[in-house]
């Protein structure tokens, strides 16, 4: 059995109880090393740990699939929540582990934390991620359209090509008022967390690849 679990935004104490119990009992725990490091305090000390990077993820996921078919309980860890910018990785699990439909256990996303910090309701905003493969031009157009409709936007940038400074400049070029409020968060819930209250016009700094934006409604 393969479980795809969200380990939250970074704070190891923000994992759902069900996820903690699963990690404590798992035979195999896998994922990107930076993600595993965040949740390792909950790991079964006897579990096989399979760390992967972008270059060897297919090979490592094949190992996970083999162990699952041998009867092992396997957990693949996702940053945040599987349903927030995680489906491309989920597709890799389906393809490379040669097992479809892993059991998904949601986690807490940095998008939810950012919404809480800025009192941004999801029903009056849109969530958009640029952190994915392929063309993002339609997503950029959607962001402009949503803001012009009076929505707020919770946005995950694309490292390092479409970061907060580039997003802000693009929005101003598309007619979004330069005084529109922007909050940028880095490493949410981590000990090194930082937050910035800006406008599109003065959002010009370079931020970490672990960053997220909340762009206020232009009607406020």
Helices and strands, with pairings:
Layout: E1 2-6, H1 17-25, E2 28-32, H2 33-39, E3 48-52, H3 57-69, E4 74-78, H4 87-96, E5 103-105, H5 110-118, E6 125-129, H6 137-148, E7 152-156, H7 164-173, E8 181-186, E9 194-199, E10 211-215
Parallel strand pairs: 1-4, 1-5, 2-3, 2-4, 6-7
Antiparallel strand pairs: 7-10, 8-9, 8-10
Strand order of the largest sheet: 3-2-4-1-5
Distance between the termini: 49 Å
**How many H/I helical runs?**
7
CATH class of the largest domain, please? Alpha Beta
CATH architecture of the largest domain: 2-Layer Sandwich
Q: From the 3D structure, determine the CATH topology of the largest domain.
A: Methyltransferase, Cobalt-precorrin-4 Transmethylase, Domain 2
Structural domain count: 2
What is the CA-atom radius of gyration, in angstroms?
19 Å
Report on the structure:
The chain is of the alpha/beta class. The chain has 2 domains: 2-105, Tetrapyrrole methylase, N-terminal domain (Cobalt-precorrin-4 Transmethylase, domain 1); 110-215, Tetrapyrrole methylase, C-terminal domain (Methyltransferase, Cobalt-precorrin-4 Transmethylase, Domain 2, 2-Layer Sandwich), CATH 3.30.950. The chain is 32% helix and 23% strand. It has 7 helices and 10 strands. The chain has helices spanning 17-25, 33-39, 57-69, 87-96, 110-118, 137-148, 164-173, and strands spanning 2-6, 28-32, 48-52, 74-78, 103-105, 125-129, 152-156, 181-186, 194-199, 211-215. The chain has a 5-stranded parallel beta sheet, sandwiched between helices. Strands 6-7-10-8-9 form a 5-stranded mixed beta sheet, with helices on both faces. The chain is elongated.
């Amino acid at each position: 059995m393969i479980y795809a679990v969200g380990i939250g935004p970074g704070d190891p104490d923000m994992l759902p109880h069900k996820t903690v119990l699963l990690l404590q009992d798992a035979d195999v725990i896998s994922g990107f090393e930076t993600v595993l490091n965040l949740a390792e305090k909950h790991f079964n000390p006897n579990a096989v740990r399979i760390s992967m990077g972008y270059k060897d993820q297919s090979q490592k996921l094949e190992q996970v699939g083999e162990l699952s078919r041998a009867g092992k309980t396997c957990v693949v860890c996702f940053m945040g929540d599987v349903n927030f910018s995680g489906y491309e990785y989920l597709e890799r699990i389906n393809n490379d582990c040669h097992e479809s439909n892993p059991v998904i256990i949601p986690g807490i996303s940095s998008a939810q934390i950012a919404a809480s910090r800025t009192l941004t309701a999801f029903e009056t905003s849109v969530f958009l991620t640029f952190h994915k493969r392929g063309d993002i031009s339609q997503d950029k157009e959607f962001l402009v359209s949503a803001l012009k409709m009076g929505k707020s936007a919770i946005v995950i940038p694309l490292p390092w090509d479409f970061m907060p400074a580039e997003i802000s400049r693009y929005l101003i070029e598309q007619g979004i008022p330069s005084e529109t409020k922007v909050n940028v968060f880095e490493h949410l819930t981590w000990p090194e967390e930082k937050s910035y209250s800006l406008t599109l016009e003065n959002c010009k700094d370079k931020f970490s690849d672990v960053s997220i934006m909340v762009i206020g409604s232009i009607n406020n």
